[in-house]
Amino acid sequence: MKKLAELQNIDILTWVTTGFQILAIFVAAQVAIEKFSVAIGKPVRWVKQKNEERRLIIQTAKSLDDLWKQRAIDVEQSIKHDEKLKENLQSVSNKIDTLSDQITFMQNKMDETEMAKLKDTIIIYYKKYKDLGEWSALEKDAFWDLFKSYESHGGNGFIHSVVEPVMRELNVVD
Q1: pLDDT of residue 77
Q2: Nearest CA to 169 among 120, 138, 126?
Q3: Considering the entire predicted model, what is its pTM?
Q4: Distances (CA, A) of 95 to 18, 84, 100, 143, 165
Q5: Which residue stretches, if any, does this entry annotate as coiled coil (predicted)?
Q6: Separate counts of helices (H) and strands (E) for the chain
């Protein structure tokens, strides 16, 4: 009983210190057993497991590092590829713009040429029928079809101000 009474009189600091000393003894024993078992070439099962876990952690860390490096390389290649695509798209866009300008220019020239031909034909009709003062329904339809086509190609001016009023006044004969 005396021994139990003495244990109750020990302060908390002594209990904590003693607990840490006991823990240190167990850890030191574990390390000593581990080192001894490895030294004799017959490691204990928990030492094998600990070594295997350590090896797996190192291998995983190395794999993650390799993946991270590969990711950086892939990102850099992706950026280069994107920049090359942008350059190619810009080049294609520029070529399309150039072709569009050329087509517009050619269309304008074709419109001018067609308009000039139509204007000549309209003037021939004008000269032929203005003095006669009459024309057939077929000739009238043909003339106004030419006139609409002339307008669709951008024609105006002399034809509208001089020719159109005269041609509208012509009499239709059957």
Answers
A1: 96
A2: 126
A3: 0.49
A4: 86, 16, 8, 42, 47
A5: 82-116
A6: 6, 2
Residues 38 and 48 in one domain: no
Question: How is residue 110 written in tokens?
Answer: 């074709």
**143 and 64 within one domain:** yes
Q: Is the Cβ–Cβ distance between 159 and 122 less than 8 Å?
A: yes
Q: Which domain holds residue 2?
A: 1-42
Based on the fold, state whether residues 60 and 139 are members of the same structural domain: yes
Residue-level pLDDT at 7: 66
Angle between the N-to-C axes of helices 12-39 and 45-132, in degrees from 0 to 180, rounded to the nearest 10: 90
Q: How many other C-beta atoms lie within 10 A of the C-beta of residue 135? A: 19
- Ranges of residues in the chain with a pLDDT under 70 are 1, 4, 7, 46
The H or E element containing residue 135 is strand 134-136
